Amino acid sequence: MATEQTPESAPLAQEMPTLGLGTWQNEDPQQCAESVRTALEMGYRHVDTAQIYGNEAAVGDGIAAADVDREDVFLATKVWNTNHAHDDVISSTEESLDKLGVDSVDLLYVHWPSANYDPEDTLSAFAELKDRGLIDRIGVSNFEPHHLDAARDAVDDPIFANQVEIHPLLPQEELREYAEGTDVELVGYSPLARGQVLDVPEIQDVAEKHDVSEAQVSLAWLRQKGVTAIPKATSRDHVADNWASLGLELDDEDVAAIDGIDRTERQVNPGFGPDSWD
Ligand code: NAP
What we know:
Elements: H1 29-42, E1 46-48, H2 56-65, E2 74-79, H3 86-100, E3 107-110, H4 119-131, E4 138-141, H5 145-154, E5 159-165, H6 173-181, E6 185-189, H7 201-210, H8 214-224, E7 228-229, H9 236-244, H10 252-259
The structure holds NADP nicotinamide-adenine-dinucleotide phosphate (NAP).
């Protein structure tokens, strides 16, 4: 017998694909739109942007140009630090949707827990946007466990994902454990450590063993840790190389070699980041 569906039990409009396309610093509008179109036509179905990247219109152009239906694309953007007051969250998100040329986004993140971010005030606006159907899910970014606890207490809607820097040089064990113990998905930014993973001998060895690129090794390692990765790639070759990581399976020996890397490097550490990173 079929179970009656309620809004709570209805399936989410679009699952979050485990590999997406990042777009930070993809600033030339034509190049940005072209890389988004290329990725979507290659099979990517997850695109990440942010108000501060200044490329939401170009990302929207790329989605519109691709031979892929909008509803098949998981689209995420982020509210910038200066827009964290309740009414600014609402108006800036409406502007984002306008620039992106879409009626709603699949995921809207608080970009950083900083400036005038306040769990109750900021997240009540996210809940309102969700009630209005302008966003499907609430996300946060650059949150530490204590920020996540406060956010989850502040709002009845689930916090769907925490987007943080994570790669073999910053394995984020504590946040991975937190994600495993809750329903908060981990989305990994700078999954190639902004190019640094290419020069790590342990990663080079695994890449050579499988006859693949170092980028693919880093992305496969993240996938096998249960982390969604959003590498930024501009050129078709990079977009394709990263996509090919979905076909790479690392064995236990490979994973142990990467887990054993004795070098820690955080790539993104602005002055307004959480104090605990110092
Ligand atoms: P990344 O994805 O780790 O690295 C991007 C760099 O790697 C670019 O220079 C790119 O070159 C190059 N690259 C891509 N694929 C490659 C491949 N297969 N082989 C060799 N080089 C390759 O760094 P990221 O841009 O910092 O992070 C990814 C995304 O995460 C961002 O674009 C953004 O969407 C998001 N992000 C979010 C936050 C946040 O605070 N929430 C912070 C940082 C990033 P080309 O561009 O020339 O292809």
